[in-house]
Design a protein that fits this description.
single chain; about 250 residues; 6 helices; globular
Length: about 250
C-alpha cells in the first residue's frame, strides 16, 4: 500500500501591480509566504490559485484541492452587497470578487473545508448575503485600533470567542489576543452564518457556517502568528486535518 498523500490546500491568490521599477503597472500573481509556511508546517501541500475570470478554469482549479483558504487582499466592491461606494472605501479589484465567488461556488459544491482570513471573512459574509462596514468610521461609535501598522506577529487586541463554536474548540479559550490589519468588517450577518468572535468594541472577528461541515472565518491573520501562537497554529492544523478527512472520502 502506497504512502498516504498529504491534502492539497488551495489559497486564493491576489494581483499585485508594480508601482515602479522596470515595469510600472505590471501585474503579478502572489500570496504572502506565511500562508504557505503555515500549511507546510501542519502537514498540507500549499497550492496558490491565481486569479482567473474563467468559470471552467476555476472549476478545474478547485477540483485539484482538498481544502480552500480565502485569503486577504483588497477591499470588496460595495456593489457586491448592493451599496454605493462611500468616500473611505479603499482600492477594490472586482475581478478578485468574481474569482472568490466562483471559488466558493465550486468548493461548496464539493463540500471541502473552507477557511477565510481577513478579506476572507468579509467575502464569505457577502457571499451569504451579508454586508460590510466600508470603513470603521461608519460603525457609529468609537472602535479600538484595528490597524496596527508594522510587526505582523505582534498581538494587539482581545477577541472574545463564543463557547459553542469551532473557534473556541480550536483555541481552547474564551478570550484570546490577535493581530489586526483591517479597516472594514462584517456589518449585517449573512444567512446561514453565526457570529463566533467579537472584539471589545463589538466588531465581528469570527464567523462560521451553521450547517456546512467546516467553514470558519476570522478577521485577524493567524498565518502571521502560527510560529508563536499555539491557537493560531492549531487553526491550520485542524483545518488541514479536516481537509485530509475530506480527501479520503
Amino acid at each position: 500500500m502506497g504512502k498516504k498523500k498529504k491534502p492539497v490546500i488551495g489559497i486564493a491568490g491576489n494581483v499585485l501591480k508594480d508601482s515602479g521599477g522596470m515595469f510600472p503597472g505590471y501585474r503579478r500573481s502572489y500570496v504572502n509566504e506565511d500562508y504557505n509556511m503555515a500549511i507546510i508546517q501542519n502537514g498540507g501541500v500549499p497550492f496558490i490559485i491565481p486569479v482567473s475570470q474563467s468559470d471552467e478554469v476555476i472549476e478545474e482549479q478547485v477540483s485539484m484541492i482538498d481544502g480552500l483558504i480565502i485569503s486577504g487582499g483588497s477591499d470588496i466592491s460595495s456593489l457586491e452587497y448592493e451599496e454605493e461606494p462611500l468616500p473611505l472605501l479603499g482600492d477594490i479589484l472586482p475581478e478578485r470578487d468574481y474569482f472568490d465567488r466562483k471559488l466558493l461556488d465550486a468548493a461548496i459544491k464539493r463540500q471541502i473545508p473552507i477557511l477565510g482570513i481577513c478579506r476572507g471573512i468579509q467575502f464569505i459574509n457577502v457571499y451569504h448575503g451579508g454586508t460590510l462596514y466600508q470603513d470603521h468610521s461608519y460603525y457609529g461609535k468609537d472602535v479600538i485600533r484595528h490597524w496596527q501598522g508594522h510587526d505582523p506577529d505582534v498581538k494587539t487586541h482581545h477577541v472574545h470567542l463564543e463557547k459553542e463554536s469551532k473557534l473556541y474548540d480550536i483555541y481552547k479559550n474564551e478570550d484570546i489576543t490577535v493581530n489586526s490589519f483591517h479597516h472594514q468588517s462584517v456589518k449585517d450577518l449573512g444567512k446561514g452564518l453565526k457570529i463566533t468572535g467579537k472584539s471589545k468594541d463589538g466588531i465581528i472577528e469570527g464567523v462560521e457556517s451553521i450547517d456546512y461541515p467546516f467553514m470558519v472565518a476570522v478577521q485577524w491573520h493567524p498565518e502571521m502568528l502560527f510560529r508563536k501562537d499555539e491557537g493560531s497554529n492549531r487553526l491550520f492544523k485542524i483545518f488541514i486535518e479536516k481537509s485530509s478527512e475530506r480527501k479520503e472520502l
